């Protein structure tokens, strides 16, 4: 019975929303023509022209999705196509002493095997080119690829990968970001420091702000590493043709950058690389850069046949980017009536073995760390450090979910300690139109307070005595 | 005993890259039958961007969304685009498409001005017609205009344009600057039940009020928010990649990496906060990433409200929070309703196993 009620409520809410939005947006333009010619507005206004914006238009891909007719990489086959598998290091920090691929090459059906020495420029990355396509020397996390095999079937490729022998000399490793920051820590990209990017935002005078505060709240918050888990794993097909022109079909959200990276790693003129972005079966930031594509291209060149690579779920976890774990220290000074006078934030991001989109994540997190609140006196500093773990990179929210967890947890602690309603304390501090952001930017179209009041009304939030 | 709690979290989030140039370019071709083809270098990654971009082109041309066909994601045939990243597609690619459509429309207007014997400034495109402002009965169909432009006047109505959000570099010492062109804002409020004996957390409902500027397609905005909340619930309560002491992953599979399924979803009530950003296409900003930003914070505040436990380390699982429970021995943990039997995997005391 309870479940029935729940379902009905949900339906009622959904229908209500639908009708409300539909009513707002589907109003027909006024039928009576104006007497005078209207002045051209500076910007086109929705609803004043043919109805397109604001409509609940059906997606052009929905029918194909619904009928199972969408063609993802795994649905595509080219004549003579081979299947690739990548051998992973399986050790977090080591020097490769020897790689023996002869047993793999001898497996019937194996058409090509490549290692680091086959790659013209063995590095890539959107900010720093610190990531090898296949590792030839130093292994920096257990998911590093060491060799790639192309065979006539996926099973043969998997079998051949198992026959590759790698001799390692283990190296020291560091897994904790705070430990990796220390001077004596093992340097993952020697001779460089493990701290590979930092950012600071200073505004006002925090010492003065804390001195004027009635109460000071301090806390440390930490978050974990998570995966994007798209339904479709990383997948691509590379076809290196007889004219030395490379076509790659890939499930990737950024084809312009991917083509540039491919051309660079393969030392091909960009005009010889065509990248076709197929329908992506979930991205969430995880498919914003190349991964196995250069290896597939070189296997195709070597074998003279198109090569497909589809990551297993395990490959997806151990070798692709993930969300940064954060260690966040917040210190906030407030008045008795809950106004924030000063805040210092220190963020340490666990960057994993390679940079990927860490510098961008760091920047966004550092800027957003103080929350949508007016704070006159602020220091926000952020560091990202290498560790011998799966690399972290772009993921939906780019550092914002982590800092939001910290600043909003502390906001509730402050509200509770001061006896102020959680909605009210946010309204007192929230940005309004024209508010100045931590970076000194004047903000426009700001609706923090409106969103607080709308959500509170929808939820049925009532102040407790 | 189950204890109920409520928690609020709000957020701000930027649209587009941090300072770095992130342009998009687009080509809009109006066909002889009055439909249009848009070439864009972005890629549909499941979020419905092609539907939204088609609506933007249609609005700019005065035709219906179904009249627009998009060709996307090919470095040989489509113009450059920085890509489906940073919640920028609607805002940046949308702005490029508006401008490209305006350029194509300018050619149509020149032709239509001759056909209707009025000045170009007197014209507007609407309802698949080009008409004289204020006198809609005085009109020609866009298809006829496009055909005449191409076949008689030799000027095919094709427009191209690019757009890059204006930013100002940040000072390296103080961080002062204009890193983003615009931001969106949102609040989510969660209601949870926490079993104070088992520590099980059940997220009952979430009210989500999001700003995205003009919602180009409210249905897709709601879809993004609901999907984001699912991801936020996993981040708050369930998901965690575990490493052993040697730095190897212990749960690189969907048996032991617990994430929300449809059965874990609470009731979600989405409100799109009325807003208009004059810098966006028809007032639009974006919604992709912001949808999950406040979810975990709201849930953790609701747990705190329910049982007085301030969890400072995500995810809020039992091993993570027993020590933080006011010494009362209460445990807070989340349970996937579909995978309760696999919970044991999460209780292994390896969470901090990566630190030697």
What portion of the residues of chain A fall into strands of 2 or more residues?
A: 15-25%
**What is the name of the CATH superfamily of the largest domain in chain A?**
Aldehyde oxidase/xanthine dehydrogenase, molybdopterin binding domain
Assembly state: heterodimer
Low-confidence stretches of chain A: 1-13, 26-49
Q: Which structural class matches the secondary elements of chain B?
A: alpha/beta
Radius of gyration of chain B: 26 Å
Shape of chain B: elongated
Task: Count every helix of chain A, treating DSSP H or I runs of 4 or more residues as helices.
Answer: 13
CATH architecture of the largest domain in chain A: 2-Layer Sandwich
Give helix and strand order of chain B, one letter per element, not per position: EEEHEHEEEHEEEHEHHE
The end-to-end distance of chain A, rounded to whole angstroms, is 33 Å
CATH class wording of the largest domain in chain A: Alpha Beta
Characterization of the model:
The complex is a heterodimer of chains A (465) and B (356). By secondary structure, chain A is α+β, with helices and mostly antiparallel strands. Helix content of chain A is 29%, strand content 22%. A seven-stranded mixed beta sheet of chain A has the order 3-5-1-12-9-10-11, sandwiched between helices. The model of chain B is unreliable at 321-331 and 335-356 (pLDDT under 50). Chain B has helices at residues 49-61, 89-116, 142-151, 218-238, 295-307, 318-321, and strands at residues 2-15, 24-30, 36-40, 68-72, 123-126, 129-132, 135-141, 158-163, 182-195, 200-210, 267-272, 333-334. Chain B folds into two domains: 2-12 and 182-347, Aldehyde oxidase/xanthine dehydrogenase, molybdopterin binding domain (Aldehyde Oxidoreductase, domain 4, 2-Layer Sandwich); 26-160, Aldehyde oxidase/xanthine dehydrogenase, molybdopterin binding domain (Aldehyde Oxidoreductase, domain 4). Chain B has 356 residues and is of the alpha/beta class. In chain B, the strands form three sheets. In chain B, strands 1, 9, 10, 11 and 12 form a five-stranded mixed beta sheet that branches. Chain B has a four-stranded mixed beta sheet with strand order 4-3-2-8, covered by helices on one side. In chain B, helix 1 packs parallel to helix 2. Classes of the chains: A alpha+beta (465), B alpha/beta (356). At the A-B interface, helix 1, strand 7, strand 8, helix 7 and strand 11 of A face strand 1, helix 1, strand 4, strand 5 and strand 9 of B.
């Amino acid at each position: 019975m309870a479940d029935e009620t729940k379902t009905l409520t949900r339906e009622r809410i959904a229908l209500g929303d639908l009708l409300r939005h539909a009513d707002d947006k589907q109003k027909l333009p006024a039928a009576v023509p104006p007497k005078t010619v209207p002045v051209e507005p500076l910007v086109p206004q929705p609803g004043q022209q043919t109805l397109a914006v604001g409509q609940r238009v059906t997606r052009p891909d929905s029918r194909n999705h619904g009928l199972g007719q969408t063609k993802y990489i795994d649905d595509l086959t080219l004549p003579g196509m081979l299947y690739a598998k990548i051998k992973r290091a399986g050790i977090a920090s080591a020097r490769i002493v020897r790689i023996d691929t002869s047993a793999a090459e001898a497996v019937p059906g194996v058409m090509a095997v490549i290692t680091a020495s086959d790659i013209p420029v063995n590095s890539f990355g959107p900010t720093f080119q610190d990531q090898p396509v296949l590792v030839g020397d130093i292994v920096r996390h257990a998911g590093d690829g060491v060799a790639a095999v192309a065979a006539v079937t996926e099973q043969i490729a998997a079998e051949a990968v198992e026959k590759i022998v790698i001799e390692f000399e283990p190296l020291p490793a560091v897994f904790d970001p705070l430990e990796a920051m220390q001077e004596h820590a093992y340097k993952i990209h020697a001779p460089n420091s493990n701290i590979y990017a930092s950012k600071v935002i200073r505004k006002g005078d925090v010492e003065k702000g804390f001195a004027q505060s009635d109460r000071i709240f301090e806390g440390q918050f930490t978050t974990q590493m998570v995966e994007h888990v798209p339904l479709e794993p990383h997948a691509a097909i590379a076809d290196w043709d007889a004219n030395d022109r490379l076509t790659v079909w890939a499930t990737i959200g950024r084809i312009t950058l991917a083509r540039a990276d491919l051309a660079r790693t393969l030392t091909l003129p960009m005009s010889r690389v065509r990248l076709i972005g197929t329908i992506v079966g979930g991205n969430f930031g995880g498919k914003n850069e190349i991964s196995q594509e250069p290896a597939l291209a070189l296997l195709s060149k070597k074998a003279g046949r198109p090569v497909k690579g589809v990551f297993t779920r395990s490959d997806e976890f151990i070798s692709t980017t993930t969300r940064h774990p954060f260690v966040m220290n917040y210190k906030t000074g407030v008045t008795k009536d809950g106004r924030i006078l000063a805040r210092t934030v220190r963020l340490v991001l666990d960057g994993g073995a390679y940079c990927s989109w860490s510098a961008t994540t760091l920047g966004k997190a550092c800027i957003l760390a103080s929350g949508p609140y007016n704070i006159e006196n602020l220091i926000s500093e952020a560091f990202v450090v290498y560790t011998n773990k799966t690399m972290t990179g772009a993921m939906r929210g780019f550092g914002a979910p982590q800092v939001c967890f910290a600043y909003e947890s502390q906001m509730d602690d402050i509200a509770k300690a001061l006896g102020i309603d959680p909605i009210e304390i946010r309204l007192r501090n929230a940005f309004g139109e024209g508010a100045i952001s931590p970076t000194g930017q004047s903000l426009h179209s700001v609706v923090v307070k409106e969103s607080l009041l709308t959500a509170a009304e929808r939820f049925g939030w009532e102040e407790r005595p | 005993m189950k204890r109920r709690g409520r928690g609020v979290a709000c957020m701000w989030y930027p649209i587009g890259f941090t300072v770095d140039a992130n342009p998009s370019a687009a080509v809009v071709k109006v066909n002889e039958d009055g439909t249009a083809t848009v070439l864009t270098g972005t890629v549909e990654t499941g979020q419905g961007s092609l539907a939204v971009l088609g609506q933007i082109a249609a609005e700019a041309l005065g035709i219906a969304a179904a009249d627009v066909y998009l060709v996307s994601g090919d470095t040989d045939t489509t113009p450059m685009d920085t890509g489906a990243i940073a919640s920028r597609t609607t805002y940046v690619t949308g702005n490029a498409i508006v401008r490209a459509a305006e350029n194509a429309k300018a050619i149509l207007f020149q032709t239509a001005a001759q056909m209707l014997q009025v000045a170009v400034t007197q014209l507007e495109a609407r309802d698949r017609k080009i008409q004289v402002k204020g006198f809609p009965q005085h009109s020609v169909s866009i298809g006829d205009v496009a055909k005449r432009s191409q076949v008689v006047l030799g000027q095919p109505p094709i427009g191209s344009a690019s757009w890059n959000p204006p930013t100002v570099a940040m000072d390296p010492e103080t961080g002062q600057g204009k890193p983003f062109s615009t931001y969106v804002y949102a609040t989510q409020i969660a209601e949870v039940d926490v079993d104070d004996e088992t520590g099980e957390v059940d997220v009952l409902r979430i009210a989500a009020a999001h700003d995205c500027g003009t919602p180009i397609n409210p249905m897709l905005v709601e879809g993004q928010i609901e999907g984001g909340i699912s991801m936020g619930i996993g981040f708050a309560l369930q998901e965690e990649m575990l490493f052993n002491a040697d730095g190897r992953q212990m749960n690189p599979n969907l048996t032991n990496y617990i994430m929300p399924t449809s059965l874990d979803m609470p009731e979600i009530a989405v409100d799109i906060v009325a807003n208009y950003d004059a810098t966006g296409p028809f007032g639009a900003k974006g919604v992709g990433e912001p949808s999950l930003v406040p979810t975990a914070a709201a849930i953790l505040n609701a747990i705190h409200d329910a049982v007085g436990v301030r969890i400072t380390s995500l995810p809020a699982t039992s091993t993570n929070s027993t020590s933080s429970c006011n010494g009362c021995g209460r445990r807070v943990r989340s349970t996937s309703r579909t995978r309760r039997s696999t919970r044991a995997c999460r209780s292994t005391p390896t969470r901090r196993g990566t630190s030697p």
